[in-house]
Amino acid sequence: MQLNQIEPLKQLCLALAEFYRFPDQQFYQELISGDWIQTIEELSQKAALTGRKPALPPDLTFSALKQEYIRCFIGVGEPAAPPIESIYKVWTVDPSAQVVFARQKGYLMGDSALHIRHLLRSFGLELPAELAYQPDHLAVLLELLVYFLEKLEFNHTVEYLKDHFDWLPDFYKRLSEIKANELYLGVTSLLMECLRKMTVLLQGFSSIEEVS
Amino acid sequence: MPKFSRRTFLKMAAATGAIGSMPVYLNRNKFLEAAEEASIEKVPTLCNGCSNMCGMFVHVKNGRVWKAEGHPIHLKSRGRLCARGHGTVADIYNPHRVTQPMKRVGEDRFEPITWEQAYQEIGQKLMKIVDEHGGNSVVWMEHGTRGKQYADILLDYIGSPNYITHYATCFTSKTNVWPKMVGTTLYGDHENADYMLFVGRNFAGGIIPNGMNKVLKAKERGAKLVVVDPRHCELAIQADEWIPIRPGTDLAFFLALAHVLITEKLYDVQFVRQYVSGFDEFWQANKNCTPEWAEKITSVPADKIREIAREMAAKAPRAFLETGYHGLNAHYQNSVQQAQANVVINALLGNMFKVGGLLPAASLELGQLDKPVPPAKEKGPRVDGAGEEGPYATVEPGRGIPQLVPKLVDEGKVKAVFIYHYNPLRTGPDPEYQKKMKDAELVVSIPIDWNETSYHTAHYILPESFFLERMETPVNVNGHITHLSPQIAYRAKVVEPVHDTRSLLEIMQGLAKEIGASKYFDFTVEEEAEAMVAPLGITMEELRQAGCLEFPATVKTGFPMSALGKPSLATPSGKVEFSVGVYKANGFSGVPRWIAPKVMPEKDNEFRLIHGKQPWHSHHITSNNPYLMAISETYNGTWAWMNSQRAKQLGIKNGDKVTIASDLAQKQVQVKVTELLHPDCIWIPSAYGGFSPKAEVAYGVGVNYNDFLPMQVEPIAGSVMGQEVIVTVRKGVN
Predict the structure, then answer these.
(1) Cβ contacts of A98 on chain B, cutoff 8 Å
(2) Could you say which of B234, B355, B552, B633 has the lowest number of CB atoms within 10 Å?
(3) Domain spanning A3-211: which CATH class is it, in words?
(4) Following CA atoms B330, B335, B341, B346 in sequence, which dihedral angle do they give, to the nearest 10 degrees?
C-alpha cells in the first residue's frame, strides 16, 4: 500500500462532492464538456477503482440536470433520496428524548448532524449559505473528510469514515428505488467504492502508525 | 491535476476563539455520550397543531426539540396537549417541508432560488400589476388573522382592500350573527353548567384539552350532557344522550325548542322583557313551529324535543345551547338562521352573562407599537363584494369570501394572489375549480410544507419558519371556553430554523425593500411585543419566562348596563336583538325563520355528504404527519361512515369499498357500516384526500368532502355551505 494512493481518492471525493450540490451554470458547462467525467475516470484509474462509473445522459440540458437534481435530492413532486445522513439513521440514541420520533429514521438534525456541527465548530469551519442548514449533507461530509485527511492522523479519519458514511448503501438503495439517472447512481456507486478503498488503505496506515 | 473548478466550500470561521477552549470529540459515540450530559431547557411557547394555540413547554437539549408538554396555567391546555400537539412537534425535522424559496419553472416543476431573487422578482411583478390594474387586483388570503397585522401594511401601501380569510369554510355564520344580535360573542361556561346541549359541535373531535376537562368535570358533578348530531361523534361517547338528527335541519329543532319554551311559558320572561328586543316579531314568524312540525323535518321525536326544552328550562340559567363552531356555521343554506336561533334559545333560557350559562371572553387591551403608516390611498370596492353594496352586503369584510377568488382570477379581476398559512385547494370547495388561481399573473404562497395550493398553483413559494422556529406577538388567551381572568401568552422561538426559512415579518420586510415600503416594516417582532404588553404593567422578559400570565378577573356576571341603568350591549337597542335590522335592510328576514336545506337526498342511493373532525387531526393540516396518520390507520380513520340499514339496502357490508359520486367527482373509499349515523347521510372525516405529491404521507390517502362540493356562496354570511351536496353511493369501484 502506498501513501500516494490516497491522493487520487481524496481528489475523487472532492470531485464527487460537487455532484451533490445544486448545479450551477459553470458546473453544467464543465460537465457537458466532458471535463468532469474525464477527471473522474483518470482519478478512478489512478486509485485502481474498477466498479460502476457515472455516465453523462445524452443531450443533457442545464434545465434537465437541475430538474433531475431536484427530483432525486430535494423531491418536488415525488419521493426523493436527500443526501443527508440523519435521514437514514435513528434520530437519537439519547434515552432521555421523549419526542415521538426519537427512535425513528427519516428525520433531519439527528445525532449525526449534531456531531458534524460540533466538528465544524471545533475546527472553526463555516458552511456556504446553500448548505448552512444541513451540516450532515453528503457534500459537507466529503469536504470534511478531505479536511481531516490533511489535518488529522489517519486513525481519526478512519473513525470518521466509519461513523459518518455507513448510511451510503441505504442512500444508494433509495436512489435506485426512485430510479435516479445513471449520472447520480454512478456517482454514488463510485463514491461508495472510493470510500471503501480509502478506509482499507487508511486502516493499513493506521496500523503501521501504531506499530511504529 | 483536476480539470474542473470547484465551488468555494468550507471556510475558516471569522471568529475561531472557541477552538482549543472546548473538548473536541472526533469519535461519534464519545461525542454522543458527552452530549447526553447536556442540560435541558424548558421553553414556554404556543402549539400550532390547530388554531387553538394551546400553551406548551418545549424541552430543548443541545439545540434540538426534546419533549413537549402542556402549559399548566394556559387556559386551553392546563397541563395537557392533545395528540395533534404531540404529533405536530415532529414536523420540525420532517425533510418534506419547503426548505428554501422555490420558483415554478413548469407544470409540477420548481427550482430553489435565493430569498433575494424571490423578493426582487415578486416585488417587480407586484408593482407592475398595481400600476397596470390597481391595488384592487391584489388579494391576500390566509387561514385566520395571524398575518393581518403585516398584510394590512402591504395592502394599505398598494391600495388594496382585499384581505380574505378561510372562515367561509368554518364559523362565518356565527361571527356574522352574534355581534349583530348580542354585540359580542358568548361562550358556554361548561364547568359550572348543569345542562349542556351540544348541537352540531363535536367538542371532543375539535378538541381543546381543557375544554373537555371542563365538560367532564361538570359531568362528574352531575351535569347532563346531550349531543344532537347526525353522527355518534366523539363527544356523544361522553354524553348522557345522543340524538341523531337529519342533517341540515338543526334550525327546525331550535325553532321547536323555542316553541316549547314559549308556549309552555318556560322561558325567562323577566330576562326577555328587560333585555330582548324583537321577541314578538320572532314569535309571529315561528308560532307554527311545533315539535310535531319539527319531528317531520328533523326526525327527532316531538316528545324528545319537549323533554329537552323542559329539562333545559328547569336547569336554567345554568343550562345552555353550546354556541358552536365549524359544525353548522358554514354548512347549510340555513346556517345563518341556525346561528340566530341559537342566540334566541339561549336568550329564552336567560343564561347570558351568568355563571353556568354563557359568558363573554376575558381579554385585555394590548398596546401598539408606534410606527409610520403608508399614506392613505383610495381603495376601490372589495373585489369579492363582501360588505359592499350588492349581493354580499351583509358578509363581514374582515372575513371575505375566499371561494370566489378562483372565479375572480378567471374573470381577470384578480391579478395577484398572496396565500399565507392557508390551503384552499384542499380545504376549500372543488379543487379543480380552485386551481384556476394559478392563472393569476402572480401567485405567492407562504406555507410551511408542500401543501396542495403551493404545489399546484403557486408561482413562488416562500417558506415560513416552523412555529417552534419563530417568535410571534402576544395574544389574549380566550375563546370557546370561559375564564373570568384574562391571560396573555405568546409564541416563542424555541430553536433555530432547520431550513432556510423566515418569519412572516422577515418575509414582508424583504418584499417591502423591493417595492419601496421598507420604512413601514422597520421594526422587530420584539419591539412590537414590548409595546403590546407595556400597558399591562409587565415586561416581555416576564412573559418570556412564564410563557403565559394571568391577570385579575375582568369578566363580570350580570347583563351589561349603562350608567343610566339601561341595557348596554353593542347593538342598536342595547338589548339582545331577535331581529337583525341590517338583514332586513338587505332583503332578508330579520328574525330566524325556517329555511329548508338547499338540496335533499331523494333516491335510494342518494345521501347528504357530511364531514367532521377527528381528535387526532386538525382538518387536513396535520395529514402529512406520520404519527397522526398512524392513528388514522389504527382506527380505520379514513373510512366513510354509512348507516347500516341504508347499507343493507345497497348490499354494502362493513369494510367494503364503495364509490361516492357527485356531479364533480367520483372517488372510492372503504366504509364503516354502523347504526351510529343518521340514515340520510354519509360521513367522511375532513382530514384526508391529499393530492400534493410532495406531501408523501398524506398523498392519495382517503377522500375529502371538498372533492364533491361545488363552489357556492351563502348570501348573508358568505359561507361555502359545506354540506349542501348530495352524493350517490354504490358498492364497488368500477
Answers:
(1) 59, 66-67
(2) B552
(3) mainly alpha
(4) -10
